[in-house]
C-alpha cells in the first residue's frame, strides 16, 4: 500500500467535514497545516477489520469498498454525502476498507474528534454552575458578544505595533525566548495561542498554562502561520478615540500586572511564575470584546461614560465565560471573574487570584485611576493593607521594601520587553 504524502489538505475542504465543522477557522487552519494527504492504489487495503488504529479516515478523492464482518459491502465515492463523515473511526474498526480506484485520503486522530465533543460538554457543565445577573443577560451589548462566543466567532485583535513585531520576529526566525516574550506581550495574542494549544486539534491530558508550553505543543511552524494570519486579519483599527485609548490602557495595565504577578510568584513557594504571568496578562481579557463591539456598534454606546460603565460591569463575567469556553483551567476562569473582588477570602492559603489581585493594586501606585488605567469603580478600591490577599502573600505595611523590590524587578522586565519590541 502506498502511503507517501501527496500534499497538505485544504482548510476549507476540512471545515466541511463532520464533526470538524465545529472547529473555529483558526483551529481548522492549524489542523490543515499538520494534515497530509496520502495516496493509495486500486486494490490496496487501507483498514483491516478489527484494527485498533486510533485514527479516522476521510476520503478526499476516488472510490472505496467497505466490507463488514457479516460480508455486507458498501461503496463510497468522493461526491457521496456520506463522505462528509469519517469512513471509519471506531476502534476496533468495523470494516475492511479497500480501494476501488486510485485514491487520496487523510487521517485525523480520534482524539481530535473526541475533544470536539468534550469541549462542548465542558462549557455546558460550566454554564450550569453559573449565575449571571438578569440585567446582564438581557443587555443587548452582552448578548451580541456572548452569541459570538457561543458561535466561536469572537476573534480578539492584537494591537498593530505588537502584532507586526511578532510577525517580524517569526519571519526572521527569531530566538524561542524572544518569541515567547513577544507572544505574551499582548493579551489577544497570548489568549489566541493558548486557545489553539488547548483546542481539540492539539489537546492532550492536561491544558497548557504558559506560552512556552503552547509553543512546544503546537510547534513553531503552526505558531508562525497562525500569528501571521491572526496579525494580518484581526488588527485593531479604532474608529473612536476613546476605544483606542482604552485598548492602549488595557495593554499597558495587563503587561504591568503580568510582570508584577511573575515577580510575586517568584518569591512564593509552590507557585509557577510563568503561569502567574499569563494569568496577570489575561485577568482583564473580558474588556477586549467590549472595546471591540463598542467600536463596531457605536449606536449601542451613547457616550464615553456609558462605554466605561459597560467595561466595568461586563468584563469580569465575560472574561470568565471566555476562559471557560476556550478550555482554560479553572484557576484562569476564577482570576478573570474575581481578580477585582477585593474582599475575596475563600481560604487562608493564597492562590493565583490573590497574586493577580495584589499585582493590580501594586500597578495602581502612582497612577491616575481611570485616566492611566482601564476604568475602575474608584470608590470600591480599598487600601492595599485592607485586602486579605495582601497579608496572605506575606506583605505588610511595616515592610514596604518588599513591595518596592517587586515593583523594581517588574519595571526591569517591562523595560526589556519594550527594548525587544523596538528591536523588531
CATH class wording of the largest domain: Mainly Alpha
- H and E order: EHHEEEEEEEHHHHHHHHHHHHHHHH
Low-confidence stretches: none
**Strand pairing plus helix content: what structural class?**
alpha+beta
> Which strand order do you get reading across the main beta sheet?
1-2-8-4
The overall number of domains is 2
Radius of gyration: 25 Å
Gross CATH architecture of the largest domain: Orthogonal Bundle
Q: What share of residues are in beta strands?
A: 5-15%
Reported by name, the CATH topology of the largest domain is Hypothetical protein af1432
Helical residues, percent:
40-55%
The CA-CA distance between the termini, in Å, is 48 Å
Number of helices: 18
User: What is the count of β-strands?
Assistant: 8
Overall average residue pLDDT: 84
Brief overview, please?
The protein has 424 residues and is α+β, with helices and mostly antiparallel strands. It contains 18 helices and eight strands. It folds into two domains: 109 residues, Jelly Rolls (Sandwich); 273 residues, Hypothetical protein af1432 (Orthogonal Bundle), CATH 1.10.3210.
